[in-house]
Amino acid sequence: QELAVITGAVDLMVVDVQCVMPALASITNCFHTKLVTTSAKAKIPGVEHVQFSEESAYRIAKEIVTRAVENFPNRNPKKVNIPEDETDLIAGFTTETVYQFLGGRYRSTFRPLNDAVMDGRLRGAVGVVGCNNPNMTHDYGHVALTKELLRNDVLVVTSGCSAIADAKQGLLQPEAAFQYAGAGLREICETVGIPPVLHVGSCVDNSRILTTLVSIVDEGGLGKDFSQLPIAGSAPEWMSEKAVTIGFYCVASGLLTHFSTPQPVLGSPGVTKFITEEVEGILGGKFFFEPDPIKAAGTILNHLDQKRAELKLKPLMYKPVATPV
Ligand code: SF4
Questions:
Q1: At which of 79, 106, 129 does a domain end?
Q2: Which residues pair with 235 in a beta bridge?
Q3: Ligand 1 centroid vs 258 CA: distance in angstroms?
């Protein structure tokens, strides 16, 4: 949000209820940008409010766009600074599109993906998702963890703010496989024409990952429950309450779930032990907290290998490629 505003080229920014950065009102005041809130639950002092209602969506949207157009003449050319760097990306994979990519339009199937995991071409798959956190070096956690997984033949699925970090690094284009993926993952990306990191939408679209996993289990050969699959979830720079909720449904679905900094539970040894150990016996998944993304990747890779061993899958075909620069 702030990065877009400081280009000086945003005539109006609309925010509703979620993940609105607290400094946004002060930053927009440094530029000509008009800030507009649309939810009665989340007004901001000194900021214009246009109440949204679904029944009048078109009229309200038109009104907001008109305000933006009227604000255009107030742009200060001296403050406009649009970076020249550009990166291509492929975004918006769904369960259905992955299905078609893997099997082709006329014989859509998850079989090639399941076979790749069973044959050891692919070690597993990890959802690297979630926020940026002002307490950490911006994007470092997402990008370092993702690259470490890719070179170890792990397919990465991403969403939300994490996807933007990956996109800026060029990881959401098929060519990224040549630079960052292990030999097995690279073969799959080359054959199917997909990026090694699949973007599935905003962070509330993480449920798409779960529906894809259901299809993978249905396809057969990799166990009967998510907790048996060589998969995991990670939020390497989490900060929002929404991330905690998503983390909990990830754990409840049976996944090992990495959060960088600990959730505010360490004051209670009982709660900490429950969500990082005991819950696994009930739901199959659990949290672990590790701020260092490379160490976190190590724990995740060990977990994937353990699941592979339990499923008696074939050994991995290839050694990891060298650490990316
Ligand atoms: S990833 Fe985090 S910061 Fe980004 S929209 Fe989702 S909850 Fe908000």
A1: 79
A2: 259
A3: 16
